[in-house]
Design goal:
By secondary structure, the chain is α+β, with helices and mostly antiparallel strands. The chain has twelve helices and four strands; from the N terminus they run H-H-E-H-E-H-H-E-H-E-H-H-H-H-H-H.
Length: about 350
C-alpha cells in the first residue's frame, strides 16, 4: 500500500467532477478547441520609478514570452498589447512578416498605438493603462489540472526573468484565475493533511488517557493507520488523484477506524479488569466486539456502494474509497490489532488492571 500510494499525484482540475461524456465537459472541451479557452493565467507588468511599459523594450520582452508560451500544449490562446501592436503593424504595412519583427523604438510603439486608438473603441484599454504604467499578458489554458498549471507558471516565470533581465524600472507578478486557484488548492490540500496529522496525535493521546494505558494507545496507532494506507494504496492502483474531494475522505476514514478500534480495546480492557490474560483476553475482546464490527461494516459498505451508480464523479469516488477504508478497518481491527496485543503482552500492574474503569 505504501509503494502504490507513493505514486498518488496531488492534482485538481476544474472538470474533475464530471465524466468525459457529461454535457458540461463536452461543451468546455468545445470552447477550448474552437474558442480562446476558459482558464486565464496572467502576468501583470508594472513600471517603477520613472519607467513606463509602453516602450519598445517592454513590448519586445512581452512578445518574446508570449511566443515561447504559444508553443506549450496547455495554452489555447494568448493576448497582449504587443500582439495587438504587431497585428496593426502587419496590416498597415501590408507585410505579414511584421508580426514576427521587433519594435525598433518607443516612438514606433506610440505611433502604432495611436492607430489603434483613433477609432471609437480603444482595443488597448484592457491591456495597458492610459498612463503607460501597467500592462498585462494573458494566456488561456486548457483544463489539465493544477499541477500542470503550476508547472507552466513556473516556466513563464523563468521566461519573464530572462526577457526582462535587461529592462530597467519594471516589475511583474503572476495572477489570473487559473494561477490563483492552483496555488489555493495546493495550500488547501496541504492544510488538510497537516490537520489530519494533528488529529491523529490528539485522538491517540485521548485514547491513552481514556484507557489509562500507554501500551493500548501505542498499539492502536497501526490499526488506525492501516485503513488509511489501504485507501491510499487503492488510489495509487486505480489512478485517483489526491485532491480536495479525496483528501477530506482521510479524515472520515480516521473516524471510522478509531470507532472500531475503541470497541475492540474497550472489550479487551474489560477482560483485563476481570482478570483474563493473554490469548484468552484477546479472544473475549474479538468475540464481544467482532460481530458488531462485521455487521456495521457490511451495512455501511453496501449502503455506500449504492452511490457508485451516481453520475457525479466525487460521489462515486467518495463511496468507493470509503468502502475500501471500511474493508481496511475490518482487517486492521480483527486481524492486525489482536496480533499486536499478543506481540506486546499486558503487564501485571495496577494501570493494566484498571484500564477500563466502571462508569
Amino acid at each position: 500500500c505504501v509503494w502504490l500510494g507513493s505514486g498518488v499525484p496531488v492534482d485538481s482540475a476544474m472538470l474533475e467532477v464530471f465524466s468525459p461524456s457529461d454535457p458540461v465537459a463536452r461543451t468546455t472541451a468545445l470552447v477550448e478547441e474552437g474558442l480562446e479557452g476558459v482558464l486565464p493565467l496572467e502576468v501583470w507588468v508594472r513600471a517603477t520609478g520613472g519607467g513606463r511599459v509602453d516602450t519598445a523594450e517592454v513590448m519586445n520582452a512581452l512578445e518574446e514570452v508570449r511566443r515561447r508560451a504559444e508553443s506549450e500544449s496547455i495554452v489555447t490562446s494568448s493576448s497582449s498589447p504587443s500582439k495587438l501592436l504587431h497585428d496593426v503593424w502587419a496590416i498597415w504595412s501590408g507585410d505579414p512578416e511584421r508580426r514576427e519583427g521587433a519594435f525598433a523604438s518607443s516612438a514606433q510603439v506610440h505611433q502604432l498605438a495611436s492607430l489603434l486608438q483613433s477609432g471609437t473603441d480603444d482595443p488597448l484599454t484592457p491591456w495597458w493603462t492610459f498612463d503607460g504604467r501597467e500592462a498585462r499578458l494573458q494566456f488561456r489554458l486548457s483544463d489539465d489540472g493544477g499541477r500542470e498549471t503550476l508547472a507552466f507558471g513556473a516556466r513563464v516565470q523563468g521566461w519573464m526573468g530572462e526577457a526582462f533581465s535587461g529592462v530597467p524600472d519594471v516589475e511583474w507578478s503572476m495572477t489570473g484565475d487559473a494561477w490563483v486557484a492552483a496555488l489555493g488548492l495546493r495550500a488547501f490540500i496541504r492544510d488538510l493533511l497537516s490537520s489530519l496529522g494533528a488529529a491523529v496525535v490528539i485522538i491517540f493521546g485521548f485514547m491513552m488517557l481514556t484507557f489509562r494505558s500507554v501500551r493500548l494507545g501505542v498499539l492502536s496507532v497501526p490499526a488506525n493507520l492501516l485503513p488509511l494506507l489501504v485507501t491510499l494504496g487503492f488510489m495509487g492502483w486505480a489512478g485517483i488523484e489526491l485532491n480536495t474531494t479525496t483528501v477530506i475522505l482521510f479524515s472520515v476514514s480516521l473516524g471510522l477506524a478509531v470507532d472500531d478500534t475503541i470497541h475492540v480495546l474497550a472489550r479487551y480492557a474489560e477482560a483485563l479488569r476481570l482478570g483474563l490474560r493473554g490469548e484468552e483476553a484477546v479472544a473475549v475482546a474479538c468475540r464481544g466486539a467482532g460481530r458488531a464490527i462485521v455487521l456495521t461494516s457490511l451495512l455501511l459498505g453496501v449502503g455506500l456502494l449504492v452511490l457508485t451508480a451516481s453520475t457525479f464523479v466525487p460521489t462515486v469516488r467518495f463511496a468507493t474509497l470509503t468502502a475500501m477504508t471500511i474493508a481496511g478497518c475490518l482487517v486492521a481491527d480483527l486481524v492486525l490489532l489482536p496480533a499486536l496485543l499478543r506481540l506486546w503482552p499486558e503487564g501485571e500492574g495496577a494501570v493494566e488492571r484498571d484500564a477500563c474503569p466502571e462508569g
